[in-house]
Write a structure and sequence with these properties.
Blueprint: H1 14-21, E1 31-32, E2 39-40, E3 43-46, H2 63-75, E4 80-82, H3 91-100, E5 108-113, E6 115-119, E7 123-126, H4 130-143, E8 149-154, H5 163-175, E9 179-185, H6 189-196, E10 203-205, H7 219-226, E11 229-233, H8 265-284, H9 289-299, E12 305-309, H10 313-320, H11 329-340
Parallel strand pairs: 3-4, 3-12, 4-5, 5-8, 8-9, 9-10, 10-11, 11-12
Antiparallel strand pairs: 1-2, 6-7
Bound molecules: NADP nicotinamide-adenine-dinucleotide phosphate.
C-alpha cells in the first residue's frame, strides 16, 4: 500500500501543492481486494453524492463538479468507484458513466442492488429476490453504459430472502459474464456465514470510522479470518471527521444528514470536541483531519479500502494524501484514548 506521494496537503507551501499533485509525481499502488478480487487502490471514490438531491440525497450537488471530481481521481491514479442503483435513483450511475467515458475499462466499478425508493410515505424498500437482483443488474449495466460490472454487491440485507439464495443469484450473474466479482454490504457475521453457503464472495462493505467501531468486534475479524476484502464506508463519518464543521454549521436543505442523530445536539458537539483533540495528531504528521481519519481506517489489518465520499476535485486531492504513510503505535493508542473519552 505504498505510494510516492509526499502527502503534504496539510501544510502546503505555494509549490508543494502543484508539485505533489502533478500526475508524474504520484502513483497510488493497487492491491488485490480480498483473496481473489480485482486490483484496486486503497482509496475508493464513493459516488453516493453524485446522485444529487433526491428523497435521501445531498444538497447543492452539481453534475459538472461531480464529473470534474472523477477526472481528478483518474488523474491522481484512483481506479476504484463505488456506486449503487438507488443513489439518486439511478442518477449517480448515469453521471459516473458520463464522467468515465472511454476510460471505463481502466477502472473498477462497484455498484449495488436490492434497494429502491417506494415513495415519501413508505420510504425505501429492500428486495434481494433473485429475479429482482437480475433486473437491477440489467438496469445498472444500461445506466453505466457497460457490458460488465466489476463488483456487484447486495446493498442491505433483506430479511424476507435467505442470504444464500440472494448470493446464488449474484453468482449466476458471474456465470453469465455480466459481473466479475460479488460482495455484500451492511451484513452481520451470521448473514455473511449464511451467504458463504452459496459460494465465495469477494468483499464486505461495512460502515467503519473513528466514531463508529462496532464492526471491530465481529465483522472485521470474520473478514480477516476468511480473507474477505473489506471496503469501509463513511470513513469520515459522512463529514464530521473532515474537520471543517463547527457547532454553527448548517447543512443544505434536503441533505440527508439533517435527519442523522450524529449531526444533532449534544452528540454532534461531542464529536466535534473529539475532532478538536485529534487535529494536533494530524498536524504532527503534517496531515489534515481528512487524511488522519482515512489513514486510521486503513490502519486496521482487515480494512483494504476506504470509500470516501468526494463531491469535488479538492476532496479528491485531500483524500489521496491519506495513503503512503502510517500512524505509529503510540499515536494509535493516543487516538484511542481521545475516542474513548466522553
Ligand atoms: N453500502 C452502504 O450502505 C453505504 C452507506 C453509506 C455510504 N456508502 C459509500 O461510502 C461513500 C462515502 O460515504 P459518505 O459520503 O457517507 O462518507 P464520508 O466519506 O465519511 O464523508 C463524505 C463527506 O466528507 C467530506 N469530505 C470528503 N472529502 C473531503 C476533503 N478532502 N476535505 C474536506 N471534506 C471532505 C464532505 O463533507 P461536506 O459534505 O460537508 O463537504 C463529504 O460529503 C458513499 O459515497 C458510498 O459510496 C455506502
Amino acid at each position: 500500500m505504498l505510494c510516492d506521494y509526499s502527502g503534504n496537503l496539510g501544510k502546503p507551501t505555494a509549490n508543494d501543492d502543484e508539485i505533489a499533485l502533478r500526475k508524474d509525481e504520484f502513483r497510488m499502488e493497487t492491491a488485490q481486494l480480498g483473496k481473489d478480487g480485482p486490483l484496486v487502490t486503497p482509496i475508493c471514490f464513493g459516488c453516493w453524492s453524485m446522485g444529487g438531491a433526491w428523497r435521501f440525497g445531498w444538497a447543492d450537488i452539481d453534475n459538472d463538479e461531480s464529473i470534474a471530481a472523477v477526472h481528478k481521481a483518474l488523474d491522481l491514479g484512483v481506479n476504484f468507484f463505488d456506486n449503487a442503483a438507488v443513489y439518486g435513483l439511478g442518477h449517480a450511475e448515469t453521471v459516473l458513466a458520463e464522467a468515465l467515458g472511454d476510460k471505463r475499462k481502466e477502472v473498477v466499478i462497484a455498484t449495488k442492488c436490492g434497494v429502491w425508493w417506494f415513495d415519501d410515505e413508505r420510504g425505501f424498500y429492500r428486495n434481494s429476490l433473485p429475479a429482482q437482483i437480475k433486473r437491477d443488474c440489467e438496469e445498472s449495466l444500461r445506466r453505466l453504459r457497460t457490458d460488465y460490472i466489476d463488483l456487484y454487491q447486495i446493498h442491505w440485507p433483506d430479511d424476507k430472502v435467505p442470504c444464500d439464495e440472494s448470493m446464488r443469484a449474484l453468482l449466476d450473474l458471474v456465470q453469465d459474464g455480466k459481473v466479475r466479482y460479488v460482495g455484500v454490504c451492511n451484513y452481520s457475521v451470521d448473514q455473511m456465514r449464511e451467504s458463504m453457503k452459496a459460494g465465495w464472495f469477494t468483499s464486505s462493505q461495512p460502515p467503519y470510522n473513528m466514531l463508529r467501531r462496532d464492526v471491530e468486534v465481529d465483522v472485521l475479524p470474520l473478514c480477516q479470518e476468511n480473507d474477505t476484502g473489506v471496503m469501509a464506508y463513511s470513513p469520515l463519518a459522512s463529514g464530521i471527521l473532515a474537520g471543517h464543521y463547527t457547532e454553527a454549521t448548517t447543512l443544505g436543505e434536503g441533505d440527508w444528514r439533517n435527519g442523522d442523530p450524529a449531526f444533532q445536539g449534544e452528540r454532534f458537539k461531542s464529536h466535534l470536541h473529539k475532532v478538536d483533540h485529534l487535529r494536533p495528531v494530524a498536524q504532527k504528521y503534517g496531515k489534515t483531519m481528512v487524511q488522519l481519519a482515512i489513514a486510521w481506517v486503513l490502519r486496521h489489518p482487515a480494512a483494504d479500502i476506504a470509500i470516501v465520499g468526494m463531491k469535488r476535485p479538492s476532496h479528491v486531492e485531500g483524500a489521496v494524501g491519506a495513503v503512503g504513510w502510517e500512524i505509529d503505535d503510540e499515536d494509535m493508542a493516543h487516538i484511542n484514548e481521545i475516542l474513548a473519552a466522553s
